[in-house]
Amino acid sequence: MKEAIYKSYFKKKGQKVVDMNNASIDHGINELIAVEIPEAWAAAEDAPKQDNVPEFIKEIVAPMNRQQGDALTVGQMMKYGLEDGTWPAGTSQYEKRGMSLSQEAEKDAVQSGYWQLYRYNPDLAEQGKNPFQLDYSKEPNGEFQTFIKGQNRYASLKLSFPEKADGLYEKAEADAKHRFETYKELADD
């Protein structure tokens, strides 16, 4: 691999780029860890699938989730009364997965103080009311550092610049606290 890097980069980019790529390879190799897989997993079987999915989901929602909605016919749409643009309620449980995980991460981000939830409604200003609303005004739960260390970009920072990471984590937390206090003041006006 290092030989290929030398051939690809030496003439065009120079030895410094070759050295950086080689260092990256060495770092990756040094960070490899063994993952033990229980022997019982070799005989594991999938749980039996129950196919109690409604026809609407099979014929309309599933193709759309697979980015194949263009293949749906007008007849299929009319069969389910979709020609007026309405959509049946209760279909979200069959739509793309993974949202519950992202919603949990978003909740952690808000509660830790990493994200602030707020709205600005100019109509309220016209009514003489404060247009800025802080939707989650509870004090952060003290888990800011735990939250950011669970995020890839911050974990990568610790691996790449261990001597600087903690100071940057603290600065990020201080900035988030300042932003929260500023937003609280704006919402209280």
Automatic annotation (TrEMBL):
Pfam families: EKR
Domain Pyruvate-flavodoxin oxidoreductase EKR: 42-101
Protein's recorded name: Pyruvate-flavodoxin oxidoreductase EKR domain-containing protein
Biological classification of the source: Bacteria, Bacillati, Bacillota, Clostridia, Eubacteriales
